[in-house]
Design brief:
- With 149 residues, the chain is α/β, with parallel strands linked by helices.
- Helix content is 49%, strand content 17%.
- It starts with a strand and ends with a helix.
Length: 149
């Protein structure tokens, strides 16, 4: 599984922490930016790159997008077909997003998430399988219909 990472200036430091955590865990990681701390950069620029990559390979990739509130990158990434993005503030929330909604992009709020909590959330995001229950598939099919409308 390929993991795409993206962050603006407010999420840059947490992205670098998450990247080290993932690389130490043996994951294949592609950092789509920003490559350096650049005050005043714009989160949509990086969230778009991440979402395009996940959208094209949704079955075999995941994304982790980070900005100050997490909301901005969540809004952007959910604009793309085959992307189911979830803003998570704790490991229980991302568990449900993976298990019930088959989320393939995790959005983190750098201003409100500690490095320790982020690592726990990321671990749950990457290890929780989709529950694949009929009711969850039915709901996801309705979302796919919206994307194709």
């Amino acid at each position: 599984m390929v993991i795409y990472l993206a962050a603006d200036h407010r999420g840059y430091n947490l992205k670098e922490t998450v990247k080290r955590f993932l690389l130490n865990g043996g994951y294949e990681v592609f950092d789509v930016g920003n490559e350096k701390y650049e005050e005043g950069d714009d989160y949509p620029d990086f969230a778009v790159k991440l979402a395009k990559n996940v959208s094209l390979n949704a079955e075999f990739s995941r994304g982790i997008a980070i900005c100050g509130s997490g909301v901005g990158v969540n809004v952007v990434t959910n604009k793309f077909r085959n992307v189911r993005s979830a803003l998570a503030i704790n490991s229980d929330q991302i568990y449900d997003a993976r298990h019930d909604d088959n989320a393939n992009v995790l959005c983190l709020a750098a201003d409100f998430t500690s490095e320790t909590d982020a690592q726990k959330i990321v671990e749950i995001f990457l290890t929780t399988p989709f529950g694949n229950e009929e009711r969850h598939r039915r709901r996801l099919d309705k979302i796919t219909q919206l994307e194709n409308a």
